[in-house]
Structure formats: C-alpha cells, structure tokens
Design a protein that fits this description.
Layout (H helix, E strand, L loop, with lengths): L1 E5 H12 L13 E7 L6 E7 L3 E8 L1 E4 L1 E6 H9 L5 E6 L4 E6 L2 E8 L15 E5 H9 L16 E7 L2 E7 L3 E7 L11 E4 H13 L4 E6 L3 E6 L2 E6 L18 E6 H11 L9 E7 L2 E8 L3 E8 L7 E6 H10 L4 E6 L6 E5 L5 E5 L5
Antiparallel strand pairs: 1-5, 1-7, 2-3, 2-6, 3-4, 4-17, 6-9, 7-8, 8-9, 10-15, 11-12, 11-14, 12-13, 13-25, 15-16, 16-17, 18-23, 19-20, 19-22, 20-21, 23-24, 24-25
Helix pairs in contact: 1-2, 3-4, 5-6
C-alpha cells in the first residue's frame, strides 16, 4: 500500500476517529484505525474506519493511490504525527511486517502497524428505510437534549436519548431522573419504527461531532432493530442502540403551573452563574423567591457567606420559595438561544418547567430541591 494525500484531509479523517477508538480495551486493535487505499479512475481514494464494537465511522477521502492495500494503525499516534507534519502533503507506505512509513517534506516516521485482517468487520448497512434529514435540525435536537442524559451506567436505559417519531413530528427526549429535556421537530419521512428507540450517549456525541463539520449538509438517518445509521456522501456512521425501556416521559411533564413568568434568558443565566459561586455543595443549590414584581435568587454557604440577586418580573401572584440545582437550570439556558424564557412553577414540591417563549416544540423540566 502506498498513497499520497493532503495533510488536512487525513487529519480530518483521523480526528473523526479519536472519540471512537477504544483506548482501554483488552483488544489492542480497537485503538487503531483501518486505512484502506484503492485506485479509481480519478486517481484513487482512501477509506479510514474506526470501530469500538459499539460505534463505528467510515469515511472516504480523495488521494493519489500508487499501490492498493490496507493496514491498521494506532489512531492517536498517527493523528498526532499527521497534525504536526511540516508540509501540506503526506505519503504513507506499508512495508514488510505491516510497518508504515510516513513522510512529509524532510520529516520521516516509521511506525508499527497491524494486519488489516485483524480489524473487526463493521456491520453492513442493512436494507432499512432512510429518511433525509437536515444536519442543522438534527444537530439542534441533539444539543438541546444531550445535557440531560444520565451518566449513571447502572441506569443503562437512561444513558441515551429517546428518539420517538410521533404523528406530528419526531421527538428526542433525555432524562437522568432529576431533569428532563424534550424537543420536537418535523422530520418528514417514515423511519419504519414500531416504537421509539434509545440512541446511546457515546453514539450521539460522535454524531454531533460529524454534524458540526457541516451543519448545512444534507444527510440520511435510518434505524434497524439494533442499530442506528447516519450517512452522507463519503461518510457512514453506525451505532448500536440501547436495548431497554425508556420511562413514560409524558408523565413527568406537569401541566402549566399556576405561576408563570417570562424572564430574559441571558440575564437569568448570568445571575445563576454568579449566585451559584457561593453555593455550599456540589449540588449548586440556589433558592428562587418569587413575589409580586420580583424574583430573588439566593445561595448560602456556612464557610463563605451568602449571595443574592434580584430580577424584576411581571408577576402579580402569590409568593413562592423553591430550591433548584443551579447547574441543571444553567444547562438548559446554555443550550437555548431564545431571548425570553418562560418559567412555570406550581409549588415548592413540584418541578419547574422552562420553555422558550413562543416555541411549543421544546420543554425542560427540573426537579426541585429541599434547601
């Protein structure tokens, strides 16, 4: 195998692999990428694949192929070498015993590779219905729900986002038991799903990375019973779905609270960040004290003192004092871009609900805290 390729193009291919390759696996081959070179009428292309048995990505990249072949190379080391090369073009050549020579300008490297045959076979893209999706829309749905995914691996059914096609659109829902985020967007097309599926946290993160490369690019999304597949020209990503039952999220979302107010998102976000600096514990506990015309946000710390900040609000109703984890509310506000946020409250024991004013397609629920 021997080929010449742009350093930027190879760097892009290897960057995609960094979050997928398994650095701690007992199978060393899973920390490698599979590099395959093939000749074409246009001169040639290389295919770079990464796969950890749960998430895989394969990308095609133009190259000048002098000799066809394939080899597995340690992903992190190759990426660090390529991104630090002195010239804009690099040549890779496989020699005896799967050694790989890398040369760019006056820089030369010889590194150890592994037989391509040892690299695990990626799942075949099955004959499943694919639905065209706008990358920007799918990226928005991920960014506005991903923060609420549970990081508790014992609750495996919450370690992902629930993808739920409905008669009016497609919903993505995430919850860790303390908060919930739901977004619904029209994604025209039939995914052929009998019920909703759970996209795992790692797969969703890698999909977000790919979508961020070009949020204007068109793509296709499809699902089988056990896998999710995203593809666009020159790129295929696959991920194993979580086999579990997602909780009935509709029961978690309360009806509109009797206390509803509109708040400027940026001002509320900045206030919470300031007041939470004094919070006494990891839970970043803050108290919302609502009274006619005013929302006071406070925190206390026996070792440091206390903090408070007032916001003027259009609220004529009954007073209320309720505690929240500031980080949970901050995560919601950070994910949104609306200028005004609606906050709905019922009583000190009921969850708070946040929605962008004028947008019925998004809702976030945050459970209260006893302070």
């Amino acid at each position: 195998m021997e080929f010449q390729i742009s350093v930027d193009e190879l760097s892009k291919a290897l960057y995609r692999a960094q979050g997928i390759v398994d650095k701690k696996s007992t199978m060393p081959i899973l920390s490698s990428v599979l590099v395959e070179a093939k000749k074409t009428d246009a001169g040639g292309r290389i295919t770079v694949s990464a796969y950890d048995l749960e998430v895989g990505v394969t990308g095609e990249h133009p190259a000048e192929v002098l000799k066809e072949g394939a080899v597995a190379i340690q992903a992190k080391s190759l990426y660090e070498i390529v991104r630090n090369l002195p010239e804009n073009v690099v040549v890779l050549k496989k020699t005896a015993n799967n050694r790989v020579e890398i040369s760019s300008g006056t820089a030369e490297f010889r590194i150890v590779g592994q037989p391509a045959e040892e690299f695990p076979a990626l799942p075949k893209v099955e004959a499943i219905p694919f639905v065209p999706v706008e990358s920007g829309v799918l990226l928005e749905m991920i960014e506005k729900t991903q923060f609420a995914i549970s990081t508790d691996d014992t609750r495996y059914n919450l370690n992902g986002v629930y993808f739920d096609p409905t008669p009016t659109g497609t919903r993505m829902v995430a919850t860790d038991g303390h908060r919930l985020a739901l977004i619904e967007k029209p994604l025209p097309g039939d995914f052929g799903l009998k019920r909703g599926i759970i996209i795992p946290r790692k797969g969703l993160g890698e999909l977000r990375r790919l979508l961020s490369e070009d949020s204007a690019a068109a793509g296709e999304l499809g699902f089988s019973e056990s896998s999710g597949i995203f593809k666009r020209p020159g790129l295929v990503m696959m991920m194993r779905l979580i086999d579990g039952q997602f909780p009935d999220y509709a029961q978690v979302i309360p009806s509109e609270g009797e206390r509803t107010l509109a708040l400027p998102r940026t001002r509320l976000l900045e206030t919470l960040r300031r007041v939470a600096l004094i919070s006494a514990d990891r839970a970043s506990a803050v108290r919302f004290e609502l009274s006619p015309g005013q929302l006071r946000i406070t925190s206390q710390n026996p070792d440091l003192g206390e903090a408070r900040e007032d916001l003027v609000v259009d609220y004529p109703g009954k007073p209320l004092r309720i505690g929240f984890n500031a980080k949970y509310v901050i995560d919601v506000l950070t994910a949104l871009d609306a200028e005004q946020i609606g906050l709905e409250l019922a009583d000190e024991l009921s969850p708070g609900v946040l929605r962008p004013v004028g947008d019925n397609g998004y809702v976030a629920v945050v459970m209260p805290m006893r302070i």
